[in-house]
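Please check this record.
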Amino acid sequence: MELVCPNCRSKDIGKIGINQYYCWNCFIELSLSKGIIHTHQVEEDGSLSSLDDLFSEEERRYHA
C-alpha cells in the first residue's frame, strides 16, 4: 500500500490500527474509508479533530 499524506505529500506513513495511519512528517492521523482518506489532528487530550474540510475530496481520494 502506497498511502500519501494529503497534507504534506509524505509517504512516511505508519499503520496504527485497522484502516488507521499516522503521518510521521506532519503528525496527523489518517483513516481510510471507501477509498477516501480522512484526516485528523490529534489534540493534547488525545481526542481527534477532523481536518477534512481543508482538502478537496479529490485530494483525499486513495489511488491504489
Q: What stands out?
A: The chain is about 5% helix and 40% strand.
